[in-house]
Amino acid sequence: MTKPALLDQLRALLGEAFVLTEGDLSAYEQDWRKRSRGKALAVVRPANTEQVAAVVKACADAGVSIVPQGGNTGLVVGSIPDASASQVVLSLQRMNRVRAIDPANLTLTAEAGCVLMAVQQAAETAGLLFPLSLGSEGSCTLGGNLATNAGGTQVVRYGNARELCLGLEIVTAQGEIIHGLTGLRKDNTGYDLRNLVIGSEGTLGIITSATMKLYPTPAAKLTAWAAVPSVEDAVKLLQLAHQHLGANLTGFEMMGQFALSLVDKHFPNLRVPLWQQTPYCVLLENSDTETQEHARTQFERLLETALETSCVSDAVIAENLSQARNFWHIRESITLAQAQEGLNIKHDISLPVSAIAAFVAQTDALLQAHVPGVRMVNFGHLGDGNLHYNVQSPAGVDAASFLATYESQVNELVYAAVQRFEGSISAEHGIGSLKLESLPKYKDPTALAWMRQIKRTLDPKGTLNPGRVVSTTTTNAAEY
Ligand code: FAD
Ligand code: MLT
Ligand code: ZN
Question: Residue 212: inside a domain, yes or no?
């Protein structure tokens, strides 16, 4: 089938207005960090699962590949088309209904294009909590969260998107529908297809709807901001927080001084506390099942012990909701502050918590020796062993030329260190196309071979988000 004939078919399926081929399509064709810009054959915006299935079938029959897209906030260049003007971007944004809430079963079923914040709000309206929480929650979608197995700032207590998901409705590469919207906590009827598709970044199937776990809303929530002298001390504080708060510990974020200096520079009205006096700060959240007073007493005891043992040099407990929000706003502004400073070499790594201090000390030194003056934007979800260990050009060095010269060397150096410490090169953002070439160097070769076999079996024509996660054009990892 010719491309014009396919476009006619798509228009007939969805209506003229929902097959975009002209005008400014940059919102769909450019990635969030503006690293890359592609050109789509068309952007299609189906309204329901049947339309998604029909579009996928039509494209598969025509041999045209599809790039599923939610909020396009992904950070690994996985949700935009390539430059060939031959791929169809399938935007799920019109599929944004919360289909059902079952308070007795503690579940919510929503369509893939539901913006994360809308899911959180729907749960809140029902008096319950949907705990997934990310800096991009005002624009990322539930489908994108599941396709990337997003993490965020509450994982230490509630887990990743994967742990929050009970059932999925999926459109296959052939345009069939898997009706898997179960709210069951237990279901051992064979292979776990839900978990296969979660984290597959649009390469195995298109998520059209999901049933997610809800939780009772904590009776009280308290946030604290602590200055810590070193990464080692942040890890000691984490251990103390586990001991003192147990399951009430819902957030534990570490932020390096340079990361906070960027927030201070680009968002001066946020008034970052304590950052000038300490190499690292930690943001802690205590979600209590009892009362605000109980949460405060728990926090005070924790921080007293931390001050006595010198793993904290100073700390502030938020006095009210607005101060707590400001603390979170500061943490979540680091990504935007970096974007305003200019592109850096971004890493999203995972390490055993016990190895993080040694990793940072050794890798900081290696990077300084390799590129003197390099600036580390080191921050992240320390409670989960997940660092955003980003490398910014030395002061005065142009970001673009720094990336052009050093990106692959710096990646190799950091990923080799991650491997030595038995970590992972992607904790939460995924592989996309940015890490496609790196993955085979660090993934177990047999596991990678299984991944390729699964991709070939479920998507034999290779039309679902090709060039992302795994390449199927070779069976030999060394050939990349
Ligand atoms: P998109 O960017 O549109 O897509 C991401 C990937 O999923 C692509 O491969 C796409 O093809 C695929 N996809 C999208 N929808 C579907 C679907 N319905 N079915 C199948 N495949 C699909 N990530 C974290 O894990 N933790 C964080 O704390 C975090 N914070 C962020 C903060 C900011 C400011 C930004 C910009 C990003 C952040 N991210 C974070 C990264 C990003 O992964 C998440 O924002 C989110 O999970 C992506 O959702 P999205 O709807 O924007 O997906
Ligand atoms: C975060 O934790 O803020 C996100 O994962 C985004 C980022 O890495 O910049
Ligand atoms: Zn993160």
Answer: yes
